[in-house]
Amino acid sequence: MITNGKISVRQFTILVVIFTVGSAILYVPGLLAEEAKQDAWLAGIVGTGFGLLSAWPIKSLAERFPGQRLTEYSVVLLGKIAGPAVSIVYFLYFFMLSAMLLRDVGDFVTTQMMPETPIQAILIAFMFISIYAVRLGIEVIARAAEFFFPILIGLASILFILLVPKIDFVQLTPVLERGIGPAFKAAPPFIAIPFLQLSVFLMLFPLVSNAKRAGRVFMGGVLAAGMFLILFTTVCLLVLGAYLTSVESFPSYALAKQANIGEFIQRTEAVMAVIWFLSIFFKLSLCFYASARFYADTFKLSEIRASLFPMGLILVPLSTVIYPNAVYTTLIVKSAFFYFMPTGFLIPALLLVVARIRGLRTRTDDGRIA
Amino acid sequence: MNANATLAPSLRHNLDMLKNALGHSTDFIVRSFRIGDAPAFVSAALLYTEGLADSKIIDEFIMEPLMSGICRSADFGARLANHRDPLALLKDSVLTVNGLSVVPDAGVLLEAILSGDTAILIDGSDRALIAATKGVEHRSIAEPASQTVIRGPLEGFVESIRVNTALIRRKIKDPRLWLETIQIGTVTRTDVGIMYINGIADDSIVREVRQRIERIDIDGILESGYIEELIQDEKWSPFPTIFNSERPDAITAGLLEGRVAILVDGTPFVLLVPALFVQYFQSPEDYYHRWDVSSLIRMIRYMGFLIALVGPSVYIAVTTFHQEMIPTNLLINLASQREGVPFPAFIEALLMEVTFEILREAGIRMPRAVGSAISIVGTLVIGQAAVEAGIVSAAMVIVVSITAISSFVMPSYNMSISIRILRFPLMGLAASFGLFGIFIGLILLVLHLCSLKSFGAPYMTSIAPFYASNQKDTLFRLPRWGIAKRPRLLNRNNPTRGRNPPQT
Question: ipTM of the predicted structure?
Fold first, then answer.
């Protein structure tokens, strides 16, 4: 059965990295550069720092309650009414997040690759593979991530190498032109996407075969992904410059278009598109899995398979109405920090505090919370 | 005759019963004779199937002892007639043939006769002697038609399971090489052998294979494909999850890696489980050439796999949706070529691919004598003539040709069939969604591959789940001194192959 799937520590790390890079890779450079200009890389470092802090309660919760999902211990910690209420909040959150991610794909494909194709067709196709993935189980998703990870690394490296001739360090100057302030001001959207979305892993921690190491590799994965995003932002700045990075709707896609080696290797944006499709596919699948899992646990369904197709059916139209237009998307993304704060940080922190005060943790001998 | 009828003491009765049971088939030979001489003799009969039994053995080691020497004397006739257990007497002191057994059961007797053994019935005994005289004519050992190599053993399996097991045993002389035989097929009663190296093969896999084979309920097995289809893990998959080969060296190598071989009488194709995806990219020859050459060739195979899979669909996607990805000069060339072509790229590609598939199938089925006719006509339909007729563009011919050639680099035929099937849905996706569609298709493909299992082992083992130690023989083949461990299948049972430090 799907719920009994086990994923190795290695697979879990890869899932964390891919999830964190996820949709962020397309937005983060632009978000950071808009406020912090040429100091966007610094804002990235600030954001990653705070991001790690916000991921800490998630890790602590998982370590305190090994082998158990949030839906299980929230009932014990918060009672029979508040506990399931938290689960429903999370269900809605991940459901909305899935819709947003799906819309991201749709917007990207219809604006950048295939302007004449109706967005619904793209959404249905992408939703379909996500439903299929979650149906096959988290184990298969983890294995597929493991399969694609070297390819992702390879493609990203190729992209960076191709862009080396275009790098211009002058683009980074003047450093700290307006002091350190803008770096801090630019960081919140970056903290929101992706670090405040990491609560999805509260549903995945119990599936890791080696629970002891899971917490550590989780933080390691987040850090690695954060560093990758900083690197990406920096390369965007170095190649495109602060201004172009902030005005392009998809700066990393614009970045990939810059590669040109001997008039022969050019227009490498397909490479970027593949990287992004892959990372967002896994992110969507994990969010979709988490929402289905929260739904099934809250309403005591024995398995998630039956609810996947109806949920997918709702997600496609939901994602078409979730943003009225692309401009609105950027607005939402900018204020995402406040929207994602409760589910990403406050609730896990609250649960952790309650668990600390009441001295509750999962006993390793019988798996009960006491 | 019912299935477990027993023999009666009367020879005449027994013979009538057996003849009736076989419907008086003309290849069922009954040779009646007497043991002893008048006045004391015993009537006896020899039963065998013509063509299945070796007549030389029957003549020299059964008929001759029974009808010459002491058997010609009345003394012996009397002794035999009065003996408590006449069959034992014959067996112990008269018959010189190897492999003798006594059976009381008519069903077993018939089965033995129909497998090529010879039965000896004597009057007054309600049991029969079975002599091992199997001597079926089989094709001589020849070079395998599929999976050819430049360097390496040139012998291939044949249709006789006995010869095949001998071919494997000749390579592995270890007593731990075990063989179990099960008869499958209520009508054909085909011998199916399970071969593995005890202590290297994982016990759970051996047990699983045995169970799945025993569970088969079918009237006949004519080829190992029957077994494959009945015991494979996933029914709805274009990918083969059971490896097959007609090369003894490939099967032996599999046994040494801890796999289990399934031999079926009547076919030279031996099955090997568990099968992994990467195995289909490995040729026995990889291990006979130098490692650097083999690694390079292996990479060419993976590349060929990719081209054969997505070649036409990428062409369709790029020319239909993403023209900006083609260098301008080439784009102008392509556009001018396509100017006169009346079809969209998808239809054009479909037309050519289908034509090629028809040609390929015709090439396999046609009588050898008309081969040259097909090749002449073939070059016309997917060649310059098609371009000049304005049906397809020249670039399309190149794409189809490179795709076709690429699909032939796979060492394993059943994997290249899978690509042939999958190419078409991918072309459809490319035609409707461009590169995005190809991406969707490939994700589906990888998800499906990752969900497959072959006898408990994840199909993508060594890539996902990733095992660092298996990488020495997955995408590359490291020098032999680098591969000290057997590949990890399910658990690690006796992993060390040997220690060969590089010679300095």
Answer: 0.93
pLDDT beneath 70: ranges in chain A: 1-5, 365-367
pLDDT at A2 (0 to 100): 36
Alpha-carbon distance of B277 to B243, in angstroms, equals 9
Residue type at A143 in one-letter notation: R
Domain at A7-333, CATH from 3.40.228.10, 3.30.2310.20, 3.30.200.20, 1.20.1740.10: 1.20.1740.10
Chain A residues touching B439 at Cβ < 8 A: 273-274, 277
CA A213 to chain CA centroid, Å, is 21
- Give pLDDT tens digits for A315-343: 999 999 998 887 888 888 888 889 899 99
Are B463 and A147 a contacting pair at CB < 8 A?
yes
Digit-coded pLDDT (tens) for B192-230: 999 999 888 888 899 999 999 999 999 999 999 999 999
CA A276 from centroid of its chain's CA atoms: 12
B331 at A interface, C-beta within 8 A: no
- What DSSP designation does B7 have? P
Both B104 and B28 in one domain: the answer is: yes
Backbone angles phi, psi at B359, to 5 degrees: -60, -45
pLDDT value at residue B364: 85
Query: Per the structure block, which two tokens stand in for A321?
Result: 């109405």
Model pLDDT, residue B1: 52
Q: Do A270 and B433 make contact, defined as CB atoms within 8 angstroms?
A: no
Q: How far is CA A363 from the centre of its chain?
A: 31
In a domain, B5, yes or no: no
Residues A96 and A119: their CA atoms lie apart, in Å, by 18
Q: How many domains does chain B have?
A: 3
Q: Residues B232, B234, B237, B240: what is their CA dihedral angle, to the nearest 10 degrees?
A: -30
B101: which strand partners? B130
Q: Which residues contact B75 (CB under 8 A, 6 or more apart)?
A: B40
Among B residues 442-471, those touching chain A with beta carbons less than 8 Å apart: 443-444, 446-447, 449-451, 458, 460, 463-466
Contacts for B355 with CB less than 8 Å, ≥ 6 apart = B381, B382
**B431-451 pLDDT, tens per residue?**
999 999 999 999 999 999 999
Q: Which residues pair with B102 in a beta bridge?
A: B129
Quick check: helix, strand or coil at residue B260? strand
**Contact check, Cβ <8 Å, A125/B444:** no
Q: What gap in Å lies between CA B320 and CA B340, rounded to an integer? A: 16
Number of other residues whose CB lies within 10 A of the CB of residue A332: 14
Q: Tell me, yes or no, whether B395 and B255 share the same domain.
A: no
Strand-pairing partners, residue B190, are: B184
In terms of residue numbers, what domain contains B94? 11-131
pLDDT (0 to 100) of residue A52 = 94
Q: Which residues of B touch A122 (CB under 8 A)?
A: 433, 436
Q: Does residue B500 lie in a domain region?
A: no
Q: How far apart are CA B278 and CA B470, in angstroms?
A: 11
Whether residues B101 and B192 share a domain: the answer is no
Residue B430 and residue B328 share a domain:
yes
Inter-chain touch B465–A143, beta carbons under 8 Å: yes
Shared-domain flag, residues B293 and B427: yes
Instruction: Tell me: do B84 and B221 sit in the same domain.
Output: no
Ranges of chain B whose pLDDT falls below 70: 1-4, 489-494, 503-504
**Would you state the pLDDT for residue A94?**
94
